[in-house]
Amino acid sequence: MQMEGRHSTLTLGFVPTRRQVFSRDEALKFKRLTLQAIGSYPVHIMDIDWLNDDGLLYDPADVSKVVERFSRSGIDALFIPHCNFGAEDAVGALAGALRKPVLLWGPRDEEPLADGTRLRDTQCGLFASSKALRRVGVPFSYIVNCRVDDLEFREGFSTFLSAVSVKKSLENLVIGQIGTRPRGFWTVMANEGELLERFGIRIEPLTVSELASMVNQVLQSDEYRERIKEELSSIASRFETSHLTTEELNVTVALKLALSRWAASVGASAIALQCWTALQQELGIMPCFVNGELTAEGLPVACETDIHGAISSVMLQAAAMHATPPFLADLTVRHPTNDNAELLWHCGNFPWALRDESDSRGAKLERHSLFLDKRPIVGEWRLKSGDLTVCRFDADHGEYSLLIGEGRSTDGPMTRGTYVWLEVDDWPRWERRIIEGPYIHHVAVTYARVAKALVEACRFIPGLKADQMD
Q1: What CATH number is attached to the domain comprising 77?
Q2: Same domain, yes or no, for 312 and 345?
Q3: Beta bridge partners of 199
Q4: Which residue has the higher pLDDT, 324 or 2?
Q5: Taking 90 as the threshold, does the pLDDT of residue 369 lie above it?
Q6: What is the per-residue pLDDT for 3?
Q7: Both 132 and 192 in a single domain?
Q8: What is the pTM of this model?
Q9: Same domain, 127 and 231
Q10: How many CB atoms lie within 10 A of CB 200?
Q11: Looking at the 3D structure of the chain, how many domains does it have?
Q12: Does 347 lie in the same domain as 272?
């Protein structure tokens, strides 16, 4: 599924480079082939064809012109293919001035000509440029020296774009915090000052009572009358709702619209919501179903005022290039018979779009199964089969890390709420790592294999350590 547009396209500075003592014709050939190879990816490419007759960087005197043009255009990253040996001095100066994530790669050389002449020596130039980047302190990704039509190139380029997308998702990130953490939940404590100082992540607060007022305004506003009808029609087309009252459905829809409007007004990319117990006192409903609906539309909503969980969801959504929604799950219980499987569960907040359509039990809207007053509305469905990536942004004692691991859904017993069983290579190792910290039972999950992208992203995010499970 393609999520609704709450994100911007990446802009990539394409800076092919050559060294003048090697073949100009070969450099031009591989510049063209490389540009063709990346033309179908979801990225806006800014080239340097305007710089000189070749559209290749080889003269350090030209670096200032490229810096000025790219700075004005707001590029997100640099791709510097070495179309022959390349110009390490120009590469180092450019990267040092722009301070953007860099991808290094060069096409593998063919065998020498019959007379022994080598036309490019690309790999040698890559060794030189990588050292130049280290000297100027610019982190970079690298695709192993390979051919432009090799799988290594395609995977490496996609991974880099996803990594840049993750880095960009944290730039000037705003998380909407609605309410305090639930009483007794030490696990979801977060240091608002550190998040701003270390990562530029700003928390925008709102009280639950203020949210309730916004919901009532939506219910009473003529402006939202048609939107409410549309949302109610969408729910009726997907679910049996006769066991829910008209008021419960109307308040649920109004909550979704109020949250979406408020997030847009403060520039929030995700929300950490106190989902119980104050919200039930103010509005009489559970927000779980709404959380999943908004997450599916590109606005992740984390339960239990889990700010780090919201950040994890934003990062995972960006790593998947916004092609599929994340979901925030509890690590709940071990599988009763599979020693390497774990239940990913929450009350009813996983996006309906991720349901298992082959499940004969279907998807239902229900009242909460754990709380005594059985408030509505929570989702109840099993998620589909597929590859999964799990991550958790977390910290203690001023040190931040990103837990990263991959697995796959597996068969397991039915339970209430929304759920899927995750199988990994060695669950006891995962369990020990999470227990020893700094992580908690909440993790963000997506249906994509993006662990490599998250690891690469940590190269470009100062102060964040990649903690790989696999």
Answers
A1: 3.40.50.10940
A2: yes
A3: none
A4: 324
A5: no
A6: 59
A7: no
A8: 0.95
A9: no
A10: 12
A11: 2
A12: yes
